[in-house]
Amino acid sequence: MSHLNLSNTEEHIEREAQHEEVHLEHAEHDTGFGTYILVWLGLVGLTAITVTLSGISLGSLTIITALLIATIKTLLVANYFMHVKFDTTIFKVFIGVCIIIFLTMIVLTFFDLTFRNPLI
Amino acid sequence: MKRDSDAHVANAHGHTGDHSGGHVHRDDIGSKMGIWLFLFTELLLFGGMFILYAAYRFIYPDDFKSAALELDPVLGAVNTIVLLTSSLTVVLAIVALQKKNIKLCMTNLWITQFCGVIFLVNKYFEWTHKIHLGIYPKGPALEEMTQGQTVFFGLYYVMTGLHGLHVIVGMAFIGFIMYFIKKNYITYNNYQKLENSGLYWHLVDVIWIFLFPLFYLIH
Questions:
Q1: CB-based contact A86:A31 (threshold 8 Å)
Q2: How far, CA to CA in Å, does B122 sit from each of B141, B145, B201?
Q3: Cβ contacts (< 8 Å) between A86 and chain B: which residues?
Q4: What per-residue string of b and e applies to A33-55 under the rule 16 or more CB within 10 Å gives b?
Q5: What is the tens place of the pLDDT at every residue in B122-178?
Q6: Which of residues 19-48 of B touch A (CB under 8 A)?
């Protein structure tokens, strides 16, 4: 009786493994060579845009647009090349916390810079 | 997706007493978490310098603009494309290995290495040109610059230098991975090490994505 149960369990695991294999094949199709090449084209396009925009005088918006484009590029690299999009929630929480800490440091530094008088 | 469930399957076999379970002692998620923790320390290392850059640019906006004119945006843009391409080939290498195409995987990793070399050669020419112009500590050109311009070039050398060092380390890392693939230590169902080296390489790419506009594209 117990032997039967064991073989049943093994069979079950086998089937689960096969099911998983099928599922994985599907997952690979979602992010095959094509997707990554498209992402790369997007990144090259954004580089071209940021270089072109730097030639146009946008005043104080220049730095903001440059940083905005760099952030979009980073999101593309992180989500697709670094597979964050397909990672479990814990990784996303990890990365989010780290970025919040970093942004807090920047904001606090600028509080100091803005309200310190004289600066140098 | 695949890496997680593969480890899971291996574990399941181990628990039911399957005799093929020599590869049970593997924790792909833990391994990936380890490299991400390391990447966070890298973010704080470079992040500190980006804050320094932001603070000095806030204090010396005009000096930063005039000093940045010395840098060649074309060379910077070429290096950006080279690094983006090298990131693409790393990720294509992973897909190729998943599809059991070891030859394509190795070709992609060789292209990555080649891109790394091109990047460093460009950097070498850039730096030697600057040094030739007299922009180095106690150099004649640097001595005549304003305080803000001196700070700009100090940050330029330290940040791009540390970044270049990371490119060298990444190439060495990927070099070891290529050896492991050749020796069959890294295979289509056990490639977390390749993935980890890729994560490191992409972080180096992301840092350059920010360095490029901040140093080369100020007008």
A1: yes
A2: 22, 25, 18
A3: 1
A4: eeebeebbeebbebbeebbebbe
A5: 999 999 999 999 999 888 998 889 999 999 999 999 999 999 999 999 999 999 999
A6: 29, 32-33, 36-37, 40, 43-44, 47
Instruction: Count Cβ atoms below 10 Å from residue B132 Cβ, excluding itself.
Output: 11
Q: Which residues pair with B187 in a beta bridge?
A: B190
Least CA distance to A6: which residue of chain B? B16
**Placement of tokens 């310098």 in the chain:** B49
Report how far residue B109's alpha carbon sits from residue B115's, in angstroms, rounded to the nearest whole number.
10
CATH of B2-6+27-216, one of 3.40.47.10, 3.40.50.1980, 1.20.120.80, 3.30.420.40: 1.20.120.80
- pLDDT digit string (tens) for B45-75? 999 999 999 999 999 999 999 999 989 999 9
